[in-house]
Amino acid sequence: MFITFREKSIIELIVRTSGKHTVHSLSSYLDVSARTIQRDLKSIEKTLQEFDLTIERTADEGLLITGPNDQIYRLIQNLITVSPADETPEERKLKLLIILLHEGPFFKKQVLAGQLGISSATLSAHLDDLSEWLQKFSVRLSRTKGVGIEIDGGEANKRHALGSYMLAYFYEEIIESLYFLQQGKSEKENILGYFYPQYLAIVDQLVNKKINKEQTKLADSDYVGLVVYSCMTLQRTEKGFLLETIELVEKSSTSEYQLIEKVCKELSDQLSVQLTKADTHFLSVILKGSKVQAADGSYYDSFLLGRKVKNLIRDVSSQLGVDLIDDFSLYQGLLAHMEPLIFRLNQNLESFNPLTDEIKRKYPVLFMAVKQGIENEFEGLDFSADETAFIVLHFGSALLMGEEKVQIDAVVICPSGIGTSKMLASRIQKELPEINSVEILSINDFQAASFKKYDLVISTIRLPVTEVDYIRVSPLLNERDIGYIESYLQNNVKKITDKTHYLHPEKPSEALITKNRPNIQQMLQEIKQVQNSMDVILSNFKVVRKQYATDHWEILQEVINVAQKEGLVTNVASALHELREREKKGGLGIPNTTMALFHCRDNSIQELLFQVIHIDHPLIVKGMDGKDMQMKNLLLMLAPTILTDRQQEILSLISTSLIENDQSMMIFTSSNEKAIRQKLEEIFLDYLQNNLIKE
């Protein structure tokens, strides 16, 4: 039995206290993070399987080891005799992965086992795990008799595989190393047995200075990821592992590419490592797939995606019987999260979420509802459980929820005997932890049973009924059966939540109502902000007709010049510069329409402005899908740099309503000022009735 000192300590503490210790109490007792304990528990679960034992949690999150007493005794005896090692299986697998990716192309099994100081059997187990991991990134690990072990795959895929493994299993160790390097403490050995400390320190300084402070404030995990991939790129390129030039698919005009280009130039100058254009492109893809800390940058920027996000919120709300449709904070957070997420999915970039298992266990119904909503709205994209769990956190935060109180009750009809029935019931609860209770019915009991009280009916035989919706499975419950049950639950979330109030089964107390009541002065202030914003937009709104123009910049120049005369803009050149910068990031034409939305925020803009310029002779502009399109209606939306949440929400309302339905598109492309103004008034009135008045 292989086990580390910390894993041995965790097992001993759980056995000794039986249900008293939680993940957090263990992390405090052993002076490590909760995430480290979670990772160790996964490794411990594999060890316990050898003894037919499992880890279970009490209602209070307490941990206990369950199984036959003789097996628990056997485990304790083994713990007494075993000699723990300092190196975890993940650490050894990382060493193995580094060797495979840096010292190839072929390896003999005995040589590898000797290098790592492990047995051939342990090496085979590690290779199995790594083969599964590498497969996610289209990298193949093959073992051929007489030839040895070989790694085959593109260089970019190899970098993604190694970087993702480090971030998935050694995120905290990287954070700690970066902290010590920032404090000026030099490391003698390579960090994680791979990164040169000098390289990592310089990369960290440059990424922080050039990107995190001057440009976009990245979310912590994505900042660390960019540092890891940048340092890895340096070291792999220096060793001669070069990216294939065919992978350079994006033009060098993107803002992400230009940012990374500056970083790469300084890295090359400081460390004398000549980074290629392919390296710059590779890192620009990583940057583009990164999440930012602030969620208020996309309030009216990505309204095609915004419509999908609103539909997702509407779908999940409908399934759960809750109202999140007007929650702008949720919409804003999801919009900021989804854009880089979809880019990552299209680039086949793996994202690891250490909380996935815990989220699925604590919020099974919400997880199923979100998964169903994603599948309904984002067809053609494959969201992993880890990515889905990130989205669940946004909804969980909006619901301000503790652990779910929804009970999912199942019934099993199995005539094969009580032993088989019990085994099937226990397997269902083990494989599908979201199911709270499983009742067993015999064929005789089945005749008189009322199935209305069950959320799920499972049978191992064909039932002689038509009015009962049931799932037929094998008595041994194979993987396909589990998939059927998961799919059924996911498609019937509404049925499950209809039998009870999803979040608040009991009537809220008077104290809770008083506590949640908004501050009247704050509310009045928000009403003033909303009233002023709507008034300004309606006052400044107009439709301008333009017969001829050489390009859209000629039109924008004219319109903003007029806005300057009216005191709405103080610096025409500054506003135009911001509009040009926004257009560089991607097309502004709305696909399948004749509209393009040009928008920006700038210090020179004094008031919110929304205007429509109708062009008699269409101009060619770049669409949001990257294709050229004809524009007959230029929509201009300008805003000051600093906006309140309510102002952002109002601008978002306008932008998403542009393509809300065929009627909306017809109105906004009509060039009829009266009809468009009336549509804006309808949008504002609906907002007032459903948000401010309701609140």
Q: Mind explaining what this structure looks like?
A:
The chain is α/β, with parallel strands linked by helices and 695 residues long. The protein has 6 domains: 5-81, Winged helix-like DNA-binding domain superfamily/Winged helix DNA-binding domain (Arc Repressor Mutant, subunit A); 89-153, Winged helix-like DNA-binding domain superfamily/Winged helix DNA-binding domain (Arc Repressor Mutant, subunit A, Orthogonal Bundle); 159-288, no CATH class; 296-398, PTS-regulatory domain, PRD (Orthogonal Bundle); 409-498, Response regulator (Rossmann fold), CATH 3.40.50.2300; 520-692, Mannitol-specific EII, Chain A (3-Layer(aba) Sandwich), CATH 3.40.930. The protein contains 29 helices and 13 strands. The protein has a 4-stranded parallel sheet. Strands 10-12-13-11 form a 4-stranded mixed sheet. A 3-stranded antiparallel sheet has the order 3-5-4. The longest helix is centred in the C-terminal third of the chain and has 21 residues, at 520-540. The chain is globular, with a radius of gyration of 29 Å. Residues 295-301 and 505-516 have low confidence and may be disordered.
